[in-house]
């Protein structure tokens, strides 16, 4: 298992967690905290702090995802920059490939609606 595969697995895992955390939130402030009755007062289990936890989790996961994506760029196979261009080295050979062009008789091959086949 190479480094890029590890980064890819981590990126998928963090993306999934980020989707879950965002889906749990309610944009109007209700979210998970309102379903436990945490309207305006501190509850027994500290549910009022759930919104703060979800906000901080969202920012932390988004930052981690961005860092993993940027770090995975250095682990992409073949992107090390050690490959040099063949054109710069002068070893590039040019080959000419003939292109088939339509002939002048192409108009003869058109079938008109009145013609019999």
TrEMBL record:
Q: Which NCBIfam families match?
A: secG
- Tell me what this protein is called: Protein-export membrane protein SecG
- List the InterPro entries: SecG
Q: Kindly report the protein's main subcellular placement as a broad class.
A: membrane
Localization? Cell membrane
Q: Which family does it belong to?
A: Belongs to the SecG family.
Where exactly are the transmembrane stretches of this chain?
Answer: 6-24, 58-76
Q: Which organism is it from?
A: Psychroserpens burtonensis
Example GO BP: protein secretion
What topology in the membrane does the UniProt record assign?
Answer: Multi-pass membrane protein
> Where is it found, in Gene Ontology cellular component terms?
plasma membrane
Is Cell division among the key words of this record? no
